[in-house]
Amino acid sequence: MTSSKQALARSATSADAAPGSQPGAARRADGRGTPPPGPGSWRSRLYRWDMKASPYAFVAPFFIFFGAFGLIPLLYTAWYSLHNVQLSNLDQQTWVGLDNYKNLMSSDFFWGALQNTFTIGVISTVPQLLMALGIAHLLNYKLRGSTVWRVVMLTPYATSVAAATLVFVLLYSWDGGMINWLLHFIGVDPVNWRESTWGSQFAVSSIVIWRWTGYNALIYLAAMQAIPADLYESASLDGAGRWQQFRHVTIPMLRPTILFTVVVSTIGATQLFGEPLLFGGVSGSKGGSEHQYQTLGLYMYDQGWIIGNLGKASAIAWTMFLILLIVAAINLLINRRLRKTQ
Amino acid sequence: MRTSTRGSRRLMALAAVAALTTGLLAGCAEDSDDGSSDSDGGSGGGKTTLTIGTFGVFGYKQAGLYDEYMKQHPDITIKENVTTRTDVYWPKTLTRLQAGAGTDDIQAIEVGNVAEAVQTQGDKFVDLGKDVDKSQWLDWKTAQATTKDGKTIGLGTDIGPMAVCYRKDLFKAAGLETDRTKLAAQWKGDWSKYVDVGKDYMKKAPKGTKFVDSAASVYNAALGGESERYYDKDGNVVWDKSDGVKTAWDASMKVATSNMSAKLKQFDKPWDQAFANGGFATVACPAWMLGYIQEKSGDSGKGKWDVAAAPTAANWGGSFIGVPTAGKHQKEAVALAKWLTAPEQQAKVFGKQASFPSTPSAYASLKPQAATTTFFSNAPITQIFSDSAKTIPTQIFGVKDQPINTAISDIGILQVEQKGKTPEQGWDAASKEIKDVLGQ
């Protein structure tokens, strides 16, 4: 112990004693990996090449995969959307120009799906984020067994869409489902959860809410824990209660996080697919007999894989992409606005 | 204190990571829960692995046919890739056929898709007509899998001859005839007569029960007995002018507007439950549905169900198996397909799974499982179904048969049945949907 300390001390003094001396400098240089002398040598060229190329090599896998499974399909879909392509005859494509898009613009099903996507998105995202915020706030208190509570919050997220939705289908079943049974006790007539417009949209939203609330709550919780405790301390010294602390300290500090979850949830809501598909059971891609909960995702799936009209399905895909861009732009604007007012 | 919070925070982070990973894994599991995996195709150790792609339950494995074949042919290993949902199976198969890669050595084709396969994928399948004695099969069955230039792309497996399964105990409680032959005579020839029996049933229906599971099932059953469906012989769409469609539609509308339906969607969970709870008294049952009814009703239905002949000889469902030209072991695959669809093997599948053979010579030797017989009150099911099978008309299928059928049953009929629309409104909704399907 003492000897090693002495050794350290000695080396330190020796380095101090001879600043910039040859061996010390060399050692330091080696440590940093400076090329050996002799520019133009094979090693130095390799080294320079390594410096320049390595970062690209390290990021390449992502871009290669993105190119293969993202970009090329994206462009190919754009190409498809300008053709009449049938699933049963992929080799024969006839150019139709913008007909698929025109067809969409005049299709009631498309506008219906757009509207459903919007309403289901709103009635699932808004309560979901509000609840997540509240839950995160509660979890942020010192609780007995807080880890357990936090893990429990995440379990819905860890269940698969299929499993969750199948359970919900049973709960919402029209005849003998648990929810109608409970409604019966408070004197409400049974609701046909699958075929009524609001009922079905509410049911689908509830599955989304159930699955994602805990996930968002954990994101909020993480952000809340990053808020310095002295902010709360000084707030409570000023006489602020829990609720006031939440409103005037927590929420402003969480603003960037809230924006992030809003963007992510909006994108998720625009792409909503699995829940309504499985909720519909057999022929679920229609989203109910009046398409009352058919989202854009379902409409695309129905057109492409059930009906087999890939050209039109591609047009829907691209329209969805454009809608997402618009949503992102709106978010950006709001974001900028908020930052200015801050 | 401090260490404990840090510890719990780390625990939480761990838990979060674990949850996220399981979420991802669950996601994967879900994607692949159709249970299909690509064929390894290779012949390892002198053995040829044949893969067979099916959907739902084909009963080959259940009846032990694969094991039997592998015992007879030690150099062959058979692997079945099952996709549970037809609507997932078929698009996947279509794309693989056209890519010329990833298909199984044998690929199953559902009757609703066979027209599409014949008309658009004919060149992607081996012509099986030369290798087999086509007279083994019911004529209409082979005709459905034969292209215009006479190429047979699939061998018939099962068919779905129709009967009516009914709850004897409920019929008795409602004061109706319970004898299967007398009942069959009451509704013989027309599904509307069957609906009339339903009206009688509803007059004294036991509490909480309905006459039939859904209007759509009556539609399907009635349409299954018509030769003209949505397309004519030349492949033109005639769904709005078709007599068959009109007859079936009218019968189903009588059901949908008269409160005799339990308003369920077939193959949904609540439908399954209704079997166990005795929610409805009758269901139009193709042979393959017997196993389903037995399974879902459980012991509660034992001996209470009975089977009577349907108003018309009708077919609902059934499949084919074909050998894609993209397969690596075509010769072996053809031999296996031939063996699997031979009358003896079809009879074995019937014994296990009640899938009805498409080869008439098997009918004499059909032996249903003892459990099935007792479950259905000793009804002579083989007799009832083979009588129906022999008189089923040849049905013409078209490329978009499946989506048109969905539009009528799950849009048109459902709107009338569940949302109280008028039959005209239901028909208009279905028409609009079909126009969308056909890209008109």
UniProtKB/TrEMBL annotation, chain A:
Ranges where the record places region Disordered = 1-39
Cited Pfam families: BPD_transp_1
Q: What SUPFAM superfamilies does its record include? A: MetI-like
Domain ABC transmembrane type-1 positions: 114-334
Q: Has the keyword GTP-binding been applied to this entry?
A: no
Cellular localisation: Cell membrane
Q: Where is the composition biased (Low complexity)?
A: 7-18
- Entry keyword annotation includes Transmembrane helix: yes
- How is it placed in the membrane, per its record? Multi-pass membrane protein
* Transmembrane intervals: 53-79, 118-139, 151-174, 212-232, 253-273, 315-334
Family annotation (InterPro entries):
ABC_transporter_permease, MetI-like, MetI-like_sf
Ordered alphabetically, the record's keywords are:
Cell membrane, Membrane, Transmembrane, Transmembrane helix, Transport
The entry assigns this protein to a family as follows: Belongs to the binding-protein-dependent transport system permease family.
Return the protein name: Sugar ABC transporter permease
Which organism does this record belong to? Answer: Streptomyces ortus
UniProtKB/TrEMBL annotation, chain B:
Extent of the signal sequence = 1-26
Q: Which UniProt keywords apply?
A: Signal
Q: Where is the composition biased (Basic and acidic residues)?
A: 430-440
Identify the Pfam families for this entry: SBP_bac_8
Highest taxon, organism lineage:
Bacteria
- The keyword Signal is assigned to this record: yes
Cite the residue spans of the region called Disordered. 419-440
Its protein name is ABC transporter substrate-binding protein
PROSITE patterns per record: PROKAR_LIPOPROTEIN
Task: Write down the InterPro entries for this protein, in alphabetical order.
Answer: Bact_solute-bd_prot1, SBP
According to its UniProt entry, this protein's organism is Streptomyces ortus
